[in-house]
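Exercise 3.2. Students should predict the tertiary structure of the chain below and write it as structure tokens, then compare their answer with the key that follows.

Predict this chain's 3D structure.
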Amino acid sequence: MEITDAKKSKKMHAGHVEVAVAGLINYRAHTIVPNVSWGLGLNHECDMLVLDDKGRFTEIEIKVSRTDLKNDLKKPHG
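Answer key:
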């Protein structure tokens, strides 16, 4: 049903990408947390944070347009 809804929508958004990425990295074997903006010592917003079975975190940054990328480049990064 999610795929059908995505096909109806002409405009791609981060939710579509999050679902696709979760499927690629095996959401049943990893802990996936979307939109982390505080805690864990982060000083920035993280689009998706993945915890693997060895206790390692991987940050995934999601961009769906050039405008999204350009706006992110304007933000301060630490």
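Discussion points: Strands lie at 31-36, 46-51, 57-60. The first strand starts at residue 31 and ends at 36.
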